[in-house]
Amino acid sequence: MLLCGIEVLYAQVLDTGKAISLLDSVVIRAYQGKDLLHTPAAINYMTQEQLRLYGPLNMAQALNTVSGVRMEERSPGSYRLSIRGSSIRSAYGVRNVKIYYNDIPFTAPGGTSMLNMLGHYQVSELEVIKGAGSSLYGAGTGGVLLMRSPITLEGITLALGGIMGSYGLKGLYGNAQFDNQAISYEYLSSDGYRNHTAMRRKVLTWNGILKIDAHHKLDVNFIYGDLYYQTPGALTLTEYHLNPRLARPAVGNNPGAEEAKASIDQQALLLGLTYKARLAKNIWQTTAIYGFYSQTQNPAIQNYERKIEPHGGGRTVFDYQLTAGSTTLAIFSGLEFQQGAFSSRTYLNVKGNKDTLRTDDQLYIRQLLGFVQANLSYRKWIFTVALSVNSLSFDFKRWSEQPVLLAKKQYNGELMPRFALMYAVNKDIGAYLNVAKGFSPPASNEIFADNSSYNLDLAAEKGWHYETGVRGFLSDKRLGFDMSIFTTGLANAMVTRRNVMGGNYYVNAGKTSQKGFEAALNYELFRGLHKFSGSKIGANFSRYRFRYTRFVQDNNDYTGNIMPGIAPNTWTLLTSLKMKNGLYGHFNYSYTSRIALNDANTVYASAFQLLAAKLGYQFFFQKMNTHFYVGADNLLNELYSLGNDINGFAGRYYNVSPSRSYYLGIMLNLKNQLK
Predict the structure, then answer these.
(1) How much is the mean pLDDT over the chain?
(2) Does the pLDDT value for residue 73 go beyond 90?
(3) What whole-number distance in Å separates Cα of residue 568 and Cα of residue 546?
(4) 493: pLDDT strictly greater than 70
(5) 616 CB contacts (<8 Å, ≥6 apart)?
(6) Global pTM?
(7) φ, ψ for residue 256 (rounded to 5)?
(8) pLDDT per residue over 74-127, tens digit each?
(9) Are 366 and 338 in contact (CB under 8 A)?
(10) 23 falls in which pLDDT band (50, 70, 90)?
(11) Which of 113, 116, 309, 396 could make an SS bond with 107 (beta carbons 3.0 to 4.6 A apart)?
């Protein structure tokens, strides 16, 4: 799944007869590269078809097939995303992973990303950069996610779809395209597997392309997301086995999740413009500006929080290329700027209603990134040198205290270099070496935590990342492979703590050592058989040794312990069978080894295995491209928790995932029949 996929048109029947896209033909954007065989970094690319082969609720199944990537679902609508173990500091949400959407910074200047505002159909391509991407993408030691919206087509196209499934799953989707403009609407709701896990998401998007002339183009991106989901809370091991569908019950004077009406009600709007121009024969420029507004109501067990988080900014990149004989020099330079003014009020929560005001905070954040990268290609060699300078400042005011509490925190002048080397063994195989320094300051939600406390003494994570890998093809390009070995040492690694009410706060953990091996294999099936097209089998594997090399807190010494929240071993087996008559089947088996749940390594989540399948048929009916599909998740009916609460208080670690479930759906596509 990492190396190949079938290119398809958005909202159309999948082109099962088209040839598999190969490493040397897939155009990627990471590090301003051209293709995977000529980019010296650990990068994974996923096509639209690969994403659509999985369940319709989210991208978790698809992303979890990528070695080193783990997307967790604590409850429907509540996601965590980590790359190579970065979830140790993400109690919830997405932190320490920088996200871009159509070249627009999607991650807020405070370091958080509202990935849950996007529905199933808003993303058609994904590129995952594993490890520090600071040299071009700013602060972060986890990695980078580059997302693309669906392709906007010429002509007139109308698509309509619907889905239903277990636990009250219902969904509708509509898309209209005309003259390089695309408007779509998606609705999805579910009652949830556990008590108090209902979810409802509505997403409205507009993507447009304005071609000014042959050398100038303007892309417009508008996304409005309205998301509501209930948060059931974590269970103890006894509750987990006694009744896994239970929401967190009341304990002592603390109410249960249902009594507190714990939930998230979130509205978010993104408007972004991306301008691409050819300034001269060898010079190109891409400039993106955006504005983002979100508001969130969050009744929780410990309080009721209301947040308003507007922010905006932009990114510009200049691309200069010069070729002389067998030598090519490419220089990329640019700036990225973001600024936000966040306000947050917390109240006493009385059965889901705001009561006494506890805190009234305002947070101003400013982030600036400057970067330059030079790529020199000479015969079989590619040399890369890059450097960025990062600046981040927090200006905090707490109006609810008298006198008003004023505090500032700055992380200035952080230089992040990257050096990379790639050698083309032959036209089908390339080997690389990548050395980068990572820098990741605390996110705003880590400095200013759930329990209304704040910790301005939190230090930024820093460390060097070393990696070597090889990727390519064998056996007449039927067998694709991608393997890498890495080691990362972090100072001031951040970890999560929880209090008795379930609130999160964060501490620095001294030093860590993170070593790993990742591999992916893909093999094309049935080449030459006229009934099949694009069938393949694949396997992905990761093995990690992540340890605290120095971590002493109070009277506890965790030095040498396993870092919690990370599975030491995972592997996935994938099979996709496609026939030219439109029938297809996809099967996904995965194994995850046991996971330490606390720093003391006294509690572990059991290993689990998952089996999922999706079957579909694509055909023409009354001149309409018709796609009918059925699917099943967790066919082995495993009892497992995909989103554990690390270092949970009083043994509350487990957020139970759904048991065996089913879904069925249909998509109708009418193209150029409306003229």
Answers:
(1) 87
(2) no
(3) 8
(4) yes
(5) 583, 584, 585, 627, 628, 629, 630
(6) 0.90
(7) -80, 170
(8) 888 888 888 887 666 665 667 788 899 999 999 999 888 898 898 888 898 899
(9) yes
(10) low
(11) 113
Predicted confidence band of residue 452 (pLDDT cuts 50, 70, 90): low
Q: Which two tokens stand for residue 122?
A: 């808003």
Given this model, what pLDDT does residue 13 score?
Answer: 35
| Bridge pairing between strands 143-148 and 552-553 | unpaired
- Give the model's confidence band at 498: pLDDT under 50 very low, under 70 low, under 90 confident, else very high: low
Strands 143-148 and 97-101: parallel
Helix, strand, or coil here: 660? coil
DSSP E strands in 309-380: the ranges are 311-324, 327-350, 353-378
The one-letter code for the residue type at 286 is: T
Partners of 601 in the beta sheet?
Answer: none
CA distances from 414 to 140, 507, 511, 632 (A): 12, 21, 19, 48
Taking phi over 0 as left and psi of -120 to 50 as alpha, with beta for the rest, 411 belongs to: beta
Question: How far from 321 is each of 177, 313, 496, CA to CA, in Å?
Answer: 35, 27, 45
DSSP string spanning 532-564?
Answer: B-S-EEEEEEEEEEEEEEE-EETTEE-TTPBPT
Residue pair 666/161 in contact (Cβ under 8 Å)? The answer is yes
Decide: 254 and 281 in contact? Cβ < 8 Å: no
> What is the CA angle 27-7-40, rounded to 5?
25
> 208-223 pLDDT, tens per residue?
998 888 889 999 999 9
Residue 242: in which H helix or E strand, if any? Answer: helix 237-242
Asked whether the bond before 403 is cis by omega within 30 degrees of 0, the reply is yes
pLDDT at position 184: 95
Phi, psi of 292 (to 5 degrees): -135, 130
The amino acid at residue 616 is G
C-alpha 147/C-alpha 154 separation (Å) is 22
Give bridge partners of residue 404 from the DSSP assignment: none
The whole-angstrom separation of Cα 330 and Cα 310 is: 36
Query: DSSP of 10-61, one letter per residue?
Result: TTS---TTSPPBPTTT----GGG-S-GGG--S-EEEE-HHHHHTS-SS-SHH
For 30-671, the fitting CATH number among 3.20.20.100, 3.40.50.2300, 3.50.90.10, 2.40.170.20 is 2.40.170.20
- Is it the case that residue 291 has pLDDT exceeding 60? yes
Left, alpha or beta for 38 (phi > 0: left; psi -120 to 50: alpha)?
A: alpha
Q: Distances from the Cα of 614 to the Cαs of 34, 146, 582, 655, in angstroms?
A: 33, 26, 14, 25
Tell me the average pLDDT across 128-152.
84
Whether 3 shows a pLDDT value over 50: the answer reads: no
Is the predicted pLDDT of residue 159 greater than 70, yes or no?
A: yes
The residue type of 413 is G
